[in-house]
Amino acid sequence: MAIAWRATGAVKTGTTSLSSVAQPTGTSTGDVLLAFIIDRGTSNANTAAPDGWLARGLAYVSGDRLQLFSAVVGSNSLSGTSWTWSSLTGRSCGYIVGYTGVGTSGYGSLDPVGVSVRSNASGTYGTLSITTTIANDMVVAAYGTQTNLYTWSSESCGTLGALTEKGDAGYTSYCSIAVANLIQSSATSTGDSTATPSTSCANVGMLFALTSSAIVVAPTATVTA
Length: 225
What we know:
The structure is a single chain. It contains no helices and 17 strands. The chain is mostly beta strands. The strands form 4 sheets. Strands 1, 2, 4, 5, 6, 8 and 17 form a 7-stranded mixed β-sheet that branches. It has a 5-stranded antiparallel β-sheet with strand order 9-16-10-14-13, with no helix packed on it.
């Protein structure tokens, strides 16, 4: 079964928590869910995951924190969709994206198992490349900002080319997250990822690939600047 985007859920906003973030419409057993969350605080560690979720990636700099969590519908006693923080100094937002055809080993199979993450100063955007090992992986890129709501466009990878945007939403005047993806037909380097914000800004990003094959889950990837 080929990997495909299912749907993107509505954005949820909050301060010290994101409560009951909506699953995408139409999800069914075996779908893999990805939760993207951005907040501003003093912690550079992943937030405790709700029931059924696993932290998979974290990009953090100067209080800006973009987190990635994954889950499999119908597995791991999945029931929670709420995240809570301490030491928050700003607003937060997040949403969940669903995919079909992804390997359901653990909390959803990634290839390679790590996540490329990077924090950027104003004028620099995106992450370093990843190299897939299996054909027809779904390459996913996410970009986040704090301070203002910026929209994103022209998401791409240097080798793979232009990505298709699947989410671009946030909390007006505070933060935003964009998500884009594309199938990579052969196992190779994606090239560095990049995107264009509506206004030049400090930002965080991550790049990874979903695979239909079962791959062992790796520890959370973290980069700080």
